[in-house]
């Protein structure tokens, strides 16, 4: 069951990244909120490196795949992200901001690792940043006044990709902390899915007026 849930999560999140890449190039934007993107890239790079040093596990292989996909999503952010910002944000300012955000993502992962150790840090950081991402996706929809750079597949795959490890770590392994965060993620993810469905049915005029 553990292997099935791990692979299910890996497949679902891989779909998130593949769809984020496709939608990002299609809409000429980035399909993942940048703060969450920075934390995700840092998490995947950190724990992929740990797994490679210790011998690749199924989760380690998944982390390597995610990290590679995340780098392409980062490319869409660097290529199109400045257009999402006010005119006073020059190219040098955008570059400096981007370096700060991604460096902070790695710093956060290293702080978790130093304080909790690899086993707990990987789980606590993953679920906390996942919850942050769930909230930021709602903010992204509001900021863009609709689903540009987003898709229902991303939303559903993210929900399922988080639900699988919630069952694994929160239910089967009995971590109340992980279970609580996983439930909160599901609540926000389902709200986001509902928002995308509502927006699709309401049409572009209703989305702009909302």
Number of domains: 1
Q: What is the β-strand count?
A: 0
What distance separates the N and C termini? 43 Å
Helix run count: 6
Series of secondary-structure elements, N-terminal to C-terminal: HHHHHH
Using only CA atoms, what is the Rg? 17 Å
Gross morphology is globular
Structural class of the secondary structure composition?
mainly alpha
Question: Residue-averaged pLDDT, rounded?
Answer: 91
Biggest beta sheet summary = none
How does this structure look, described?
The chain has 210 residues and is mainly α. It has one domain. The chain is built from six helices and no strands. It is globular. The termini are far apart. 39% of the residues are buried.
Summary of the model, kept short:
By secondary structure, the protein is an all-alpha fold. It is 85% helix and 0% strand.
């Amino acid at each position: 069951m553990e292997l099935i849930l791990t692979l299910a999560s890996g497949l679902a999140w891989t779909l998130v990244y593949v769809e984020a890449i496709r939608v990002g190039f299609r809409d000429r934007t980035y399909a993942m909120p940048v703060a969450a993107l920075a934390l995700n890239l840092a998490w995947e790079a950190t724990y992929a490196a740990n797994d490679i040093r210790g011998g690749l596990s199924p989760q380690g292989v998944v982390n390597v795949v995610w990290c590679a996909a995340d780098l392409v999503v980062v490319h869409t952010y660097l290529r199109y992200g400045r257009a999402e910002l006010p005119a006073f944000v020059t190219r040098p300012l955008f570059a400096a901001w981007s370096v700060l955000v991604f460096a902070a993502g790695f710093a956060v992962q290293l702080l978790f690792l130093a304080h909790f150790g690899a086993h707990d840090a990987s789980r606590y950081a993953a679920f906390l940043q996942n919850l942050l991402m769930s909230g930021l996706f709602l903010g992204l929809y509001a900021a863009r006044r609709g689903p540009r750079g987003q898709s229902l597949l991303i939303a559903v795959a993210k929900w399922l990709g988080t639900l699988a490890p919630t069952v694994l770590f929160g239910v089967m392994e009995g971590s109340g902390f992980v279970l609580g965060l996983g439930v909160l993620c599901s609540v926000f993810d389902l709200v986001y899915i509902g928002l995308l469905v509502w927006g699709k049915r309401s049409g572009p005029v209703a989305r702009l007026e909302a």
